[in-house]
Write a structure and sequence with these properties.
Length: 198
């Protein structure tokens, strides 16, 4: 839910999202190195990697959510604040690295939703815009889901206006379950829950 649709300017995944067959092949692949092996997906282990997560978090929001989230809210976001958040919550963080540079990250864990307790949650996936179209988001999702293999159900929350990301999640096997919330990010925005049964 964090990539820009390059055709509409709205947040979503890059147009190089791939076909259903390509996504299914990636999902079934047992070796992540088969795709884009210059990018390493790993657990965040160092302070530098957490700082990288903070940078990607702030930058990706500003790149991806223009037109969906209030500009005033986005303009007040700082790398210092998102880095502090990463340092305070380092658990279950995956980073995508191009050499020493963190270019994306994902956070996963047990469900935080009281009405869906026996499930895993992919809390966030973010990738820098210069790396769109390289299927890094797919690899982060695949690895996050593999870390949640104890759960029969995995879910995500996504901005309701993030149409491209919603299409991606549909292709991955996620479906709406009817749950919706309102966030206030300067102005109200709606998020919807999508669930995948393994």
């Amino acid at each position: 839910m964090i990539f820009r649709d390059t055709r509409s300017g709205k947040a979503g995944f890059s147009r190089e999202i791939g076909t259903d067959e390509e996504i299914g092949s990636l999902w079934r692949s047992s070796t992540m190195g088969e795709i884009n092996d210059t990018i390493c997906i790993k657990t965040a282990e160092t302070d530098e990697e957490l700082c990288g997560r903070g940078y990607v978090h702030c930058t990706a929001w500003k790149e991806a959510y223009r037109g969906i989230v209030c500009d005033r809210y986005l303009d007040t976001m700082t790398v210092e604040a998102t880095t502090a958040r990463a340092r305070n919550n380092p658990e279950n963080t995956l980073v995508a690295k191009d050499g020493d540079k963190v270019v994306g990250f994902a956070v996963y864990g047990p469900s935080r939703d009281e009405d869906l307790t026996d499930a895993g949650e992919v809390v966030a996936i973010y990738v820098l815009s210069e790396y769109y179209g390289r299927k890094i988001g797919y690899r982060l999702m695949k690895e996050a889901c593999s870390r949640l293999k104890e759960y029969d159900t995995v879910f995500v929350w996504v901005l309701e206006e993030n149409e491209r990301a919603i299409r991606f999640y549909h292709k991955y096997g996620f479906e709406f379950d009817g749950c919706k919330k309102e966030w206030r990010l300067g102005t109200p925005v709606s998020i919807v829950r999508m669930v995948m049964k393994k």
